[in-house]
Write a structure and sequence with these properties.
Elements (H helix, E strand, L loop, with lengths): L7 E5 L2 H13 L4 E4 L4 H11 L2 E5 L2 H8 L11 E5 L5 E6 L5 H12 L2 E3 L3 H4 L15 E2 L5 H10 L3 E4 L13 E2 L7 E5 L18 E4 L3 E7 L5 H14 L7 E7 L6 H9 L3 E5 L1 H5 L8 H7 L5 H12 E12 L3 E10 L1 E7 L10 H9 L2 E5 H7 L8 E5 L4 H13 L3 E6 L9 H7 L4 E6 L4 H9 E2 L5 E5 L7 H13 L3 E5 L9 H10 L7 E6 L7 E6 L12 E5 L5 E3 L2 E3 L8
Parallel strand pairs: 1-2, 1-3, 3-4, 5-6, 8-9, 8-10, 10-11, 12-13, 13-14, 17-20, 17-21, 18-19, 18-20, 22-29, 23-24
Antiparallel strand pairs: 4-5, 7-11, 12-16, 15-16, 24-27, 25-26, 25-27, 28-29
Helix pairs in contact: 7-8, 14-15, 17-18
Pathway: Cofactor biosynthesis; adenosylcobalamin biosynthesis
Pfam families: CbiG_C, CbiG_N, TP_methylase
Keywords: Cobalamin biosynthesis, Methyltransferase, S-adenosyl-L-methionine, Transferase
Length: 582
């Protein structure tokens, strides 16, 4: 989920509302448009016409009375959030699953108000059906079925689902399963068109049907081909295999046809993007119907079949040619189905406090159908994980197994979250996971607040100038290598943050590292250490290099040793930036 949501229209009628509106404009200058008019209702109507979302500093009732005559459909109407005069509450009024709930939560960070979200799926922490697969391009075949099936999902009634296993979709609760043979409610993910008569395995109409973006249409043509000829041929190719045009991801062709108006117009008429590939790339694709005549003309023995397969592989793990080349007088067309790429979100949970867990991390946890992590870290966020999510927990020392498991699940086409403490890229799970991941999965790194950053803020500002992070664990790194790094940091006069400083089995490395630094630092150099930063039992200690007692340090502690310029100021650890201020 993105941090921005397009243009946000802000409307206010009172002095406090106008002040809050300007606060929002200052915080989100690229998004906020403050609308003014003699009457607030006119400003609201203008915001409705011109903006993607609305923040109304008016009563909910007043806002609803103005906007009610303008309501269309929740997928196209702007999201609307009302904020009360005292800035206590941000109420998601319209478009909750289409930006309103997110906007209500975002307002908390700027105005300090409490978000009020009333959509049932959000209150139950269940994936909403009206946005199910939306970020994958899914469309709903018949939106009128949504409410009926959604109520069954939330009520715990048996709901049968088919076709979802092929896609990296978010979880649905355990009552939604492919094994619910006698269920009265059905969900189907398919690119097949003939849904009004009979669905798979004897299902009949009435299912909630999602159209995935699973098809790539390949097209070749002679110069000057008409849009009508291309469009007719493409429509026939899809109909021949009972494929729905709503599932077409794009139209693909050779780059020599990038300016072919007949192809461009036919695609535009159907709302499809046109993508092109070099002839040499298409020539490398094995096809069932190559042509030496085509090779002589454009440098590849196939355009339609090769472009369809290559385009599908570009967007997926693999591709299947579901419609072989069909010809008209001046064009060829073929259709390929892609095997969707799995998703791996590598999520940093922060140092432990819930309010330091980022909204993006929460969204990644709720988007994943499989969550992998160390058991004690998963315990911190189990209440955020949605019903139906498969949780794979393991213990200390099993980092490689966790990384391989997460990558394997994503490689099978699933939506996976691999969690770790702090930031997943700092002494955590991102590095081992990415060593095992290949190009067949999509990877999203979700930043987290590191232990070093959390400890630094508790101590003061010890990382205010150049600094180094060094792990003192020699379980996987030889001590000789660690010692060289500590020495280099000492000679470079870096502030040093030590991770994994001392355990019961490793009790001599920290004193050795401190001795190396002491050879390059005065004895009064400040040293801070924080145990269990931001957690209920945290302890924060500021001392000096000469007075530090290593026996007080353990594996739950971060140790920060200052540079020669660091000092204690009013009981706080400060490393000056070293700038000359004008």
């Amino acid at each position: 989920m993105t941090e921005t949501m397009g243009r946000i229209g802000v409307v206010a009628a009172t002095a406090s509302g106008r002040t809050a509106a300007e606060t929002l404009r200052a915080a989100w200058p690229d998004e906020v448009r403050v609308l003014t008019a003699d009457k607030a209702g006119d400003a609201l109507r203008e915001a409705w016409r011109t903006c993607d979302a609305i923040v109304s500093f008016l009563a909910v009732g007043a806002t609803v009375r103005v906007l009610a005559p303008l309501l269309g459909h929740k997928t196209t109407d702007p999201a609307v959030v009302c904020v009360d005069e005292s800035m206590a509450f941000a109420v998601a009024v319209l478009g909750g699953h289409h930006g309103g709930n997110l906007l209500a939560h975002r307002l908390t960070g700027v105005l300090g108000c409490t978000p009020v979200v009333t959509t049932a799926s959000d209150r139950s922490n269940v994936t909403p059906l009206d946005s199910y697969g939306a970020d994958l391009g899914f469309t709903v075949h018949d939106p009128t079925v949504l409410a009926h099936v959604g109520a069954a999902v939330l009520s715990g009634e048996p709901v049968r689902i088919e076709g979802a296993d092929d896609w990296p979709l978010p979880p649905l609760p355990p009552n939604v399963t492919s094994g619910a043979e006698d269920a009265a409610h059905h969900i189907l993910v398919t690119d097949h068109a003939a849904m009004d008569c009979m669905c798979h395995d004897g299902w009949f109409g009435g299912a909630l049907v999602y159209r995935p973006k699973s098809l790539v249409v390949g097209v070749g043509s002679a110069r000057g081909v008409s849009a009508e000829e291309v469009g007719t041929l493409v429509d026939q190719a899809l109909a021949a295999a009972a494929l729905d045009p709503a599932s077409v991801r794009c139209l693909a062709t050779v780059d020599l046809k990038a300016d072919e108006e007949g192809i461009l117009q036919a695609a535009a008429a159907r709302g499809w993007e046109v993508v092109t590939y070099p002839a040499e790339a298409l020539a490398a694709v094995a096809v069932p119907n190559p042509s030496e005549v085509v090779r002589a003309e454009v440098g590849t023995p196939s355009v339609a079949e090769a472009a369809a397969l290559h385009g599908a592989r570009t967007h997926g793990r693999d591709a299947e040619l579901v419609v072989e080349k069909r010809k008209s007088a001046n064009a060829t067309a073929a259709v390929a189905r892609l095997a969707p790429r799995g998703r791996l979100a590598i999520v940093g949970l922060g140092p432990g406090a819930r309010d330091l867990l980022t909204p993006r991390a929460i969204a990644a946890l709720q988007r994943a159908s499989v969550v992998v992590g160390l058991e004690q870290y998963l315990d911190q966020v189990r209440d955020l994980i949605r019903p139906g999510t498969r949780v794979i927990a393991s213990g200390l020392g099993q980092e490689e197994e966790r990384a391989r498991t997460a990558v394997a699940e994503a490689s099978a086409g699933r939506a996976v979250a691999l969690v770790g403490s702090g930031d997943a890229g700092v002494y955590a799970m991102a590095s081992p996971a990415l060593e095992f991941a290949d190009a067949d999965i999509d990877v999203d790194g979700v930043p987290g607040i590191t232990a070093a950053v959390a400890a630094s803020n508790l101590l003061g500002a010890p990382l205010g100038h150049d600094h180094a992070y060094i792990s003192l664990s020699d379980l996987h790194t030889p001590w000789e290598v660690i010692e060289r790094r500590v020495t280099a940091a000492a000679e470079g006069d870096f502030t040093v943050c030590f991770y994994n400083p001392r355990s019961r089995a490793r009790d001599w490395q920290l004193p050795k590292a401190l001795a190396i630094l002491a050879a390059h630092r005065p004895p009064e150099t400040p040293v801070g250490y924080v145990r269990n930063a931001t957690r209920p039992d945290q302890t924060v200690t500021l001392t000096t290099l000469a007075e530090l007692d290593p026996a007080r340090i353990d594996m739950f502690t971060v140790v920060v040793v200052g540079s020669s310029r660091s000092r204690a100021v009013a009981g706080r650890f400060v490393t000056p930036r070293g700038y000359r201020w004008a």
